[in-house]
Amino acid sequence: MPTEDPSTPRLTSTAGAPIPDNQNSLTAGARGPILLQDWQLVEKLAHQNRERIPERVVHAKGWGAHGTLRITGDISHLTCAKVLQPGAETKMIARFSTVAGEMGAADHERDVRGFALKFYTEDGNWDLVGNNTPVFFVRDPLKFPDFIHTQKRHPRTNLRSPTAMWDFWSLSPESLHQVTILFSDRGLPVSPMHMNGYGSHTYSLWNDTGERVWVKFHFKTRQGHRHYTNAEAEKVIGETREGYQEALFGAIEAGEFPRWAVQAQVMTEAEAQAFPFNPFDLTKVWPHADFPPVEIGILELDRNPDSYFAEIEQLAFSPSNVVRGIGHSPDRMLQGRIFAYADAHRYRLGTHYEALPINRPRCPVHTYHKDGAMRFFDNAPNPDAYYEPNSFGGPQQDGAYLEPPLDLEGPAGRFDHRDGGDDFSQPRALFALFDDGQKARLFANIAAAMRGVPFKIIERQIDLFQQVHPEFGSGVCEALDALDPQF
Ligand code: NDP
After folding, report:
1. One domain for residues 432 and 348
2. Of 328, 359, 390, which residue is a domain's last?
3. pLDDT of residue 2
4. 137, 147, 331, 354: which could form a disulfide with 280 (CB 3.0–4.6 Å)?
5. 68 — pLDDT class (breaks 50, 70, 90)
């Protein structure tokens, strides 16, 4: 079929050769078999076989969009980060996700949501890999693979296992805070636009005089909080399994750009020393009364990706990506993720995943990393400068980017991360925020999720709820009774 319209591009092979016929295979006669030398057919079939890459082990199902971060507040006394200076506008991309479900999972499942942001700053990419909750289930990354095993499929039944989930949670009281949020109304948002995002980890900010403060980032929805009950979500899933994609994509196509107010909680190093609990413990928040959030800007999503695969599936975040003026903290979960996220992408996407167009920094990149699969960038600026030090004008370090030193002390050892840990007062503070309706739904959601779980595990978990608040323990018992009076 010749191309008659000169404005229509000519179909080619991946090597650029024009394709004369994309409808008929190369055969021996009109009724005969196909010849192996039909390289066009081979190329098409081979490409189709390779259209998938390993899905993320966690956060496989996601929805994303491009946008802008605008800084409207002034925290320039705390940080020299250009992206956080008053008036700064930075292009960014967001990816929201569920944690446990696979790529084909329904969007409206009760689960923690990922809230991951990549800011293309002039000093390199800054990634904040947050959630829609300010805390997490565990505080030591050594526990993370075990926790995720309980959220995924049982090795023999290949089914999700409520027994594994509640067994792990009931043996891990540090999970109580996140479990309470997960089964509360906010555990099932109507869409990505109707939930908050939290950087969750403690990061640091540092300024040109080398002063450091600790910081937590919050992204407060401007669309309002909206949530489904379990029953409402079941109905929605019966109608569509792609409700988040439809809502986010549809809103942006219609010009209804979602926004979040960006806030920061700030703690000085001296305040951290005097703090009654470990301020770097990811199972806890910093109370607003002690550390009031400061408004720093607005995040707006305003453009849908043109290719979901290229821009969302290949989008790779890592908390290792910080920029001058923003640093890490002694948060152990953060340290685990600094390794694990970049490592996941090297496995999933390949060694040079940061060079893919969606991940590529918008500033110049000069590294001495060399070859490996899919190496497709230039030998810039000089092919002779492929090691360091060299005499050929290769890229050099810049001490202006050195983070102020951090005082670390104490003997190396494996300390009990639960020692002295108060796992109850913050879930109690959250429970106190719930009205009667919210409490009733919390109890019912928990009871429904405990179906089929052995009695001794339920008993152990109820003992933990009891320690949060007697009303919490008895409420869950009554909800279990209502489901099954034999309980
Ligand atoms: P505050 O009463 O000052 O906490 C207010 C925070 O709680 C706000 O961020 C608010 O989010 C959030 N919140 C309000 N209602 C609910 C709810 N039903 N479910 C989940 N979050 C809710 O008290 P504290 O700072 O002392 O925190 C009390 C508890 O609130 C904590 O134990 C924690 O569980 C929860 N929380 C605290 C956060 C923090 O950073 N301090 C952040 C999020 C939750 P919004 O303004 O969007 O409604």
Report:
1. no
2. 359
3. 54
4. 331
5. very high
Whether pLDDT at 487 is above 70:
no
Task: Tell me how far the alpha carbon of residue 301 is from its chain's centroid.
Answer: 16
Q: What is residue 70's three-state secondary structure?
A: strand
The predicted-structure confidence for 333-362, as pLDDT tens digits, reads as follows 999 999 999 999 999 999 999 999 999 999
Q: Is residue 48 part of a domain?
A: no
In a domain, 219, yes or no: yes
Which CATH number characterizes residue 126's domain? 2.40.180.10
pLDDT at residue 231 above 80?
yes
Which atom number of ligand 1 is nearest to the Cα of residue 288? 25
Looking at the structure, tell me whether residues 115 and 263 fall in a common domain: yes
User: By the 8 A CB rule, do 169 and 175 touch?
Assistant: yes
Which residue shows structure tokens 């002063």?
211
Contacts of 439 (CB under 8 A, 6+ apart): 431, 471, 475
Q: Distance between CA atoms of 274 and 290, rounded to whole angstroms?
A: 12
**Helices (H) then strands (E): counts for the chain:** 13, 10
Residues 355 and 432 in one domain: no
State which amino acid sits at residue 110. R
State whether 230 and 89 are in the same domain. Answer: yes
Active site residue 379: no
Contact 175, 283 (CB under 8 A): yes
Mean pLDDT, the chain, rounded, equals: 96
Residue position matching structure tokens 């607003």 = 288
One domain, residues 343 and 437: no
**Is 252 in contact with 301 (CB distance < 8 Å)?**
yes
Q: What pLDDT does residue 382 have? A: 87
Which residue, 300, 362, 344, 426, is CA-closest to 129?
344
Count of the separate structural domains present in the chain? 2
Q: Is the pLDDT of residue 486 over 80?
A: no
Kindly report, residue by residue over 309-318, the tens digit of the pLDDT: 999 999 999 9
Q: Cα 393–399–402 angle (5° rounding)?
A: 140
Is 224 in the same domain as 344?
A: yes
263 CA to centre of ligand 1 in angstroms? 14
What is the rounded distance in angstroms from the CA atom of residue 241 to the CA atom of residue 23? 34
> Catalytic: which of 125, 131, 196, 359?
131
Distances from the Cα of 409 to the Cα of 63, 329, 346, angstroms: 42, 14, 33
Q: Quick check: is 299 in a domain?
A: yes
Residues spanned by the domain of 471: 425-483
Q: Please identify, by atom number, the ligand 1 atom nearest to the C-alpha of residue 293.
A: 40
- pTM for the complete prediction? 0.96
Q: Are residues 105 and 202 in the same domain?
A: yes
Select from 359, 374, 401 the last residue of a domain. 359
Same domain, 120 and 229: yes
